[in-house]
Specification:
About 35% of the residues lie in helices and about 30% in strands. By secondary structure, it is α/β, with parallel strands linked by helices. Strands 1, 2, 3, 4, 5, 6, 7 and 8 form an eight-stranded mixed β-sheet that branches. It is globular.
Length: about 350
């Protein structure tokens, strides 16, 4: 454990080297007894009051598919300056093999007053020539003056727009402003120099796939140019995810020269604030995709079929995001369009 108030990166690197020596010694002294695996550096920022057991489980589940040197930063918030660390390993034994596969993990505790020092500590710990992913679970931290320098270390920054919505609620003058404020803050992070992924967008993967499947049918595809109205419904006041989905649909229609009327509606009786449905209408044709409990229901001209909705977890969403190694132009376009749509909303 590093001393409170100071962290020497070279000391952490030395402790990591000693950890590998100990792992191999415990396994019998064989050179290859513990296989070192690493495809990226994963930096995670999380508030001290979060469930670090659950975060650790999600990260551990990611390691077999995306082995990484992980740096977990526990944010202590305002208060006395605090900066300390510890190192440990995450190991597993692939089925049918004798030797372990291990990844390095570094945990850092930092108060807000020490955040400006994180780049100097973390940069020497990142693995050379491999991607650096920053998973920022804290919208509060993303709004602090020290955050741009932290984000600049990363090849890609992953945030959760729904958490930004929850934060924006406190500062919004009306419920209608919540998503607009949240997207302004997300757009401030997603600059030309910073590639951003948003878990609020990742949660829409199933919705986008199911809606696309409707138009794999040639008759439905032929009806698209005649769409005159699009209605998206959310539970309660629409949040970031509902606006992303609406933006993606409207962008996709615009690409084929279709510019229907758009309406965003709220379903007050819904049990949550998630996306509830989308309806596309044209002359003598309509298609609707809706959520009913844990299932999707797709209805075209009155004929319905259902399929499993699936449940998005930190692991499943991050596993999807870590497969994206470059910028996601589809998401970036949806963010710009969604931001414009919320600003134009009356």
């Amino acid at each position: 454990m590093g001393a409170a108030g100071t962290i020497a990166p070279e000391k952490i690197l030395r402790e990591l080297a000693e950890m590998w020596t100990a792992l191999n010694k415990d396994a019998g002294g064989e050179t290859d007894s513990a296989l070192r695996a690493c495809t990226l550096t994963l930096i995670t920022l999380a508030e001290e009051n979060e469930d670090f057991g659950a975060i650790g489980e999600a990260i551990a589940a990611l390691m077999p598919q995306h082995p990484a040197r992980t740096i977990l930063v526990r944010l202590q918030g305002p208060g006395e300056r605090q900066l300390s660390n510890r190192v440990y390993s995450q190991c597993w034994r692939p089925f049918g093999q004798k030797r372990q596969v291990c990844c390095e993990q570094v945990e850092i505790v930092a108060s807000d007053k020490a955040l400006s020092e994180l780049p100097a500590v973390i940069l020497p710990l990142t693995v050379a020539d491999l991607p650096v992913i920053l998973w920022c679970r804290s919208p509060r931290a993303a709004c602090l003056p020290a955050f741009p320098a932290i984000a600049a270390m990363a090849s890609r920054v992953i945030i959760d727009g729904e958490a930004f919505c929850s934060q924006a609620t406190a500062g919004a003058k009306s419920k209608e402003q919540t998503a607009q404020i949240a997207m302004q803050r997300i757009a401030a992070i997603a600059t030309k120099d910073t590639a951003v992924g948003d878990l609020a967008w990742t949660r829409l993967t199933g919705w986008r796939a199911m809606l696309s499947q409707i138009f794999e049918n040639r008759q439905n595809l032929a009806a698209l140019p005649g769409v005159t109205k699009v209605t998206v419904t959310a539970g309660g006041e629409p949040r970031v995810g509902a606006w992303y989905f609406a933006a993606w649909v409207m962008d996709s229609l615009a690409d084929i020269g279709v510019h229907p009327d758009f309406r965003m509606e709220s379903k007050a009786a819904a049990s949550n604030q998630d996306l509830q449905s989308i309806r596309l209408e044209g002359p003598r044709w309509s298609a609707e995709l809706s959520r009913e409990g844990e299932r999707f229901v797709a209805t075209v001209n009155g004929v319905s079929q259902s399929s499993s909705l699936g449940r998005a977890t930190d692991y499943s969403m991050m596993e999807e995001e870590l497969r994206i190694t470059e910028r996601d132009p589809t998401f970036e376009r949806a963010l710009v369009t969604a931001q414009r749509m919320t600003e134009e909303r009356k």
